[in-house]
């Protein structure tokens, strides 16, 4: 039986996408900085700290290995794991979820980079799996494009290899036993010995088990049920269509669901619809389910969506305009009505989703 | 801006810190020894180094957990974060120190590694560096998509093609590629990115660069290979050599050799900086330093570590031998040592080494433990002495021009730099051989390096300074 939407004893989860200057391709024209200042640590610190202080449970960092040189929008991105890592020591409670591709990367590097992020954030890391598969990426690493029909299986293999590597150190593998001179207990380290169709990984990992044991894995619902995800990102063309999609994701085995919503708010004396018209005049916004209106209306819509999934990920059209409105008007309203609480400083991202710290598969096997 | 070290021997000494993460040289038995994995240890060491005006914070890399006689090696410190992920986090809590990531050219793709290094360089405002290492063994390859695909003799060929490709990626965005204002026609200017195409024995790729350059233009390049091949690779490609030649005479000889090779490669004599790795054991007096040295050595090489050190060369268990007795009287069962304990020990002729060591230990009357303790250090004995004596010695190094600095390996984490920063650095400043403030905000500026080779002709050479100031 599929799990039910958010139970009443846990707050809904509110996330925000922080890539670039916002989700609209023309967002950079309305940013509070000159275009050249985007690709800096200063800019990342400012936006993630603003989201952290506002009380979002998590921030995601979109990434892509394909540069669209003809696009009207931003064509340069700092590596998402590094953006999240940079944010980790200067934020307190927000989850940090970089998008990391799996088709043209090294599974071993991906697993250790994410485990490292979980240490620098003390358990606030997640992984948004991307199965991006373009000719440009393939050529950049001297490979052929993966046939579309094999993408799901490849993504599933990479996620499984990472999960095994994260478990390859038991939690108490570092023993520091002065009497025997042993820093490690080799009996608590395990080879991953993962043999997939296209790659194999021996292990163990080069870093101990992540702070959370296993990072929560986020995946677009389209990758289910191939990929063993903890949280499905559910998208639809309109807000009304999110509920059935969320149910489909639950039926496909997603333990948690996060509904995707693009947001344009009234701001600085401008109506949201006028802001959107001006943005659209500079270029088309693909996007998905969208809310365009005032803060009170958004709070009402979020309250409804919280009934249909475990939370919502908001993609603001323009970060410098919409994030301050979200922080000043929307999140406080949701807190006032008791629909939103946390995240708890010092807590983990798994805890925000009510996911327990998982047992180690190898330790569990050894105990049998 | 203070003096810019343009010639070898500009009379200054700089420091880097090498946070090793995998080794037997970290005294983990001491109660003051902290976590090797938690970020707080990294933050504490990096911020202490920055307080001491260190040039660089350096992380190593090992892509497979070390083994000993076919089993995970238990005795050494192990378990460290991915270098660039840790450095990206440190970039947020430091402001001037360089951030050096050791990264492998065999088990990475240039498109990915060059992009991540650019990312670190932009996040840190031009403080990133790459310590280029190569490996070829299939044992490490078992963790990667292509397995052990590379022949030993091809590792530098691939490395050089890799570095050239990375540099081309870093130069692929035109100056002014990004819109000058929010009113510009588009974010990325037309034809601003030149695709990098490379087809040779190592690569068949076409790469569209994904980022512009930082204020230091390219990440600084470190290299540590010591063979003639490795040295020539360094003078053709790198900015800094992380050397093994720490003794003053050995360091002078090494400098002469590198200067000759640098000139031959068509670069100015001072274009390649030299930082030997070194361990510092300091105390108020020489006598106390000597006692501390004994204390440290005993804890670095315990009885089990001494036996295990020999076992990797003998290729068999030696637990029946007394660590406080003579070296084993049996011969190794292997011809050459295998790579599973890390590359430093790879490929030595085991029988020759064993015979040599047995003779040496007998000659000097050393037990297994005493012998291994002397043998197992990074660069011989380390710098052991009183604050004043070591400051005098380093002043001599500075005046000799033999090195540009030292890459210090702390023997304890995270407090291992405290006495160096609190006691030694002020004494070096008093002697006029150590900076009293950072020269600039980029690593390239603080090392006194010129612009990358591809930016030296015409106007591009001047970009070095102007762009860095914008980033600051």
From TrEMBL, chain A:
The keyword Flavoprotein applies. Pfam families: Bac_luciferase. The keyword Flavoprotein applies. SUPFAM superfamilies: Bacterial luciferase-like. GO terms for molecular function: monooxygenase activity; oxidoreductase activity, acting on paired donors, with incorporation or reduction of molecular oxygen. Keywords: Flavoprotein, FMN, Monooxygenase, Oxidoreductase. InterPro entries: Diverse_substr_monoxygenases, Luciferase-like_dom, Luciferase-like_sf. It comes from the Bacteria. Residues 41-249 form the Luciferase-like domain. This is Luciferase-like domain-containing protein.
Automatic annotation (TrEMBL), chain B:
FMN binds at residues 102, 152, 156, 227. Belongs to the NtaA/SnaA/DszA monooxygenase family. Keywords: Flavoprotein, FMN, Monooxygenase, Oxidoreductase. The keyword Flavoprotein applies. Pfam families: Bac_luciferase (PF00296). Coiled coil: none annotated. It comes from Arthrobacter globiformis (strain ATCC 8010 / DSM 20124 / JCM 1332 / NBRC 12137 / NCIMB 8907 / NRRL B-2979 / 168). Residues 15-402 form the Luciferase-like domain. GO terms for molecular function: monooxygenase activity; oxidoreductase activity, acting on paired donors, with incorporation or reduction of molecular oxygen. InterPro entries: Diverse_substr_monoxygenases (IPR051260), Luciferase-like_dom (IPR011251), Luciferase-like_sf (IPR036661), NTA_MOA (IPR016215). This is Putative FMNH2-dependent monooxygenase.
């Amino acid at each position: 039986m599929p799990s039910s939407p958010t139970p009443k004893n846990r707050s809904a989860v509110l996330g925000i996408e922080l890539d670039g200057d916002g989700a609209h391709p023309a967002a950079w024209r309305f940013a509070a900085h000159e275009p050249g200042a985007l690709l800096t640590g200063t800019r990342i610190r400012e936006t993630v700290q603003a989201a952290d202080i506002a009380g979002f449970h998590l921030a995601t960092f979109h990434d892509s290995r394909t540069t669209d040189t003809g696009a009207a929008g931003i064509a340069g991105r700092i590596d998402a794991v590094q953006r999240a890592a940079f944010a980790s020591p200067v934020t307190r409670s927000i989850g940090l979820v970089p998008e990391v591709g799996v088709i043209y990367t090294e599974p071993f590097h991906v697993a250790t980079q994410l485990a490292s992020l979980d240490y620098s954030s003390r358990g606030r890391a997640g992984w948004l799996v991307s199965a991006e598969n373009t000719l440009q990426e393939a050529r950049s690493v001297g490979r052929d494009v993966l046939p579309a029909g094999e993408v799901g299986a490849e993504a599933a293999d990479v996620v499984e290899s990472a999960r095994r590597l994260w478990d390859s150190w038991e939690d108490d593998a570092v023993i520091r036993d002065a009497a025997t001179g042993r820093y490690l207990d080799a009996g608590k380290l395990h080879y991953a010995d993962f043999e997939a169709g296209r790659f194999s990984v021996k292990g163990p990992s080069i870093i101990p088990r992540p702070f959370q044991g296993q990072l929560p894995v986020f995946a677009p619902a389209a990758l289910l049920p191939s990929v063993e995800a903890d949280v499905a990102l559910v998208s639809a063309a309109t807000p009304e269509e999110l509920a059935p999609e969320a149910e489909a994701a639950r039926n496909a085995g997603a333990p948690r669901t996060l509904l995707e919503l693009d947001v344009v708010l009234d701001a600085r004396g401008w109506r949201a619809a006028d802001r959107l018209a001006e943005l659209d005049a500079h270029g088309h916004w693909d996007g998905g389910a969208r809310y365009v209106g005032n803060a009170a209306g958004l709070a009402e819509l979020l309250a409804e969506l919280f009934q249909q999934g475990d939370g919502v990920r908001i993609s603001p059209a323009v970060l410098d305009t919409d994030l301050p409105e979200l922080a000043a008007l929307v999140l406080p309203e949701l807190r006032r009505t008791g629909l939103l609480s946390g995240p708890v400083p010092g807590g983990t991202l798994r805890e925000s989703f009510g996911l327990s710290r998982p047992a180690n598969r190898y330790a569990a096997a050894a105990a049998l | 801006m203070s003096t810019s070290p343009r010639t070898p021997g500009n009379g200054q000494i700089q420091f880097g810190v090498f946070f090793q993460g995998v080794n037997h040289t970290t005294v983990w038995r001491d109660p003051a020894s902290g976590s090797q994995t938690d970020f707080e240890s990294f933050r504490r060491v990096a911020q202490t180094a920055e307080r001491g005006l260190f040039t660089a914070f350096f992380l190593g890399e090992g892509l497979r957990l070390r083994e000993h006689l076919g089993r995970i090696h238990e005795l050494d410190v192990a378990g460290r974060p991915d270098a660039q992920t840790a450095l990206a986090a440190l970039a947020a809590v430091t402001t001037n120190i360089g951030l050096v990531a050791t990264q492998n050219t065999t088990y990475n793709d240039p498109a990915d590694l060059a992009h991540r290094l650019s990312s670190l360089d932009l996040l840190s405002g031009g403080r990133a560096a790459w310590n280029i290492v190569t490996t070829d063994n299939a044992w490490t390859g078992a963790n990667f998509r292509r397995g052990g695909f590379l022949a030993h003799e091809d590792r530098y060929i691939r490395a050089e093609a890799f570095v050239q490709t990375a540099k081309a990626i870093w130069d692929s965005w035109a100056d002014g590629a990004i819109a000058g204002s929010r009113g510009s026609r588009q974010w990325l200017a037309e034809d601003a990115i030149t695709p990098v195409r490379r087809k040779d024995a190592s690569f068949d790729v076409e790469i569209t660069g994904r980022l512009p350059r930082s204020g230091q233009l390219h990440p600084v390049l470190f290299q540590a290979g010591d063979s003639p091949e490795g040295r020539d690779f360094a003078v053709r490609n790198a900015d800094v050599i992380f050397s093994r030649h720490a003794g003053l005479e050995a360091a002078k000889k090494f400098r002469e050799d590198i200067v000759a090779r640098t000139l031959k490669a068509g670069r100015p004599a001072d274009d390649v900086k030299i930082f030997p790795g070194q361990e510092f054991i300091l105390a108020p007096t020489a006598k106390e330093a000597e006692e501390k040295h004994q204390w440290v050595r005993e804890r670095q090489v315990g009885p089990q570590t001494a036996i295990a050190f020999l076992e990797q060369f003998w290729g068999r268990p030696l637990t029946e031998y007394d660590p406080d007795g003579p070296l084993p009287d049996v011969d190794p069962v292997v011809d050459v040592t295998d790579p599973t304990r890390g590359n430093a020990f790879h490929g030595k002729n085991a029988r020759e080494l064993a015979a040599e060591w047995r003779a040496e230990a007998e000659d000097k009357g050393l037990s297994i433990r005493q012998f291994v303790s002397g043998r197992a250090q990074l660069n011989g004995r380390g710098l052991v002495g009183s604050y004043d004596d070591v400051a005098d010695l380093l002043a001599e190094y500075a005046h000799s021009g033999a090195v540009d600095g030292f890459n210090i390996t702390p023997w304890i984490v995270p407090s291992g730099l405290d006495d160096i920063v609190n006691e030694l650095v002020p004494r070096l400043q008093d002697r006029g051989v150590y900076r009293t403030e950072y020269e600039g905000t980029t690593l390239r500026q603080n090392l006194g390096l010129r612009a990358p080779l591809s930016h030296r002709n015409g106007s591009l050479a001047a970009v070095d300074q102007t762009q860095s100031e914008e980033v600051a």
